[in-house]
DoxX family protein (Aporhodopirellula rubra), 115 residues
Amino acid sequence: MNDLLVTQAFAWLVTTLIAMMAIASAVVKLLNLPAMNAKWNQQLGMPDSLRNGAAALEISASVLFVLPATAMIGAVMLTAYLGGAIALHLRIRAFPFAAYASVMIGLIWGAVSLR
């Protein structure tokens, strides 16, 4: 019984951290910071018109991921979003971010399976 509670508490901790990181990333996009604009436009080659949509997708996927009834849908959405981010960053040879996003995907599915 105790092991189950520890496992579920760990799963919820990981879930919360993942959701907070995704929402923080979305907030940075929505704040329209000059450093973010430079990275978004110059390094990644993304138009400004996609930034708000990407932020909305991150927030909605995070909310769905946290809610138990929609956790699988949220996990799929976060995985798809991060998969696109991995492809985008590999295109510009930003390997550390691709590795980070890959670890996040593993944590997402680990947390879902433990919950």
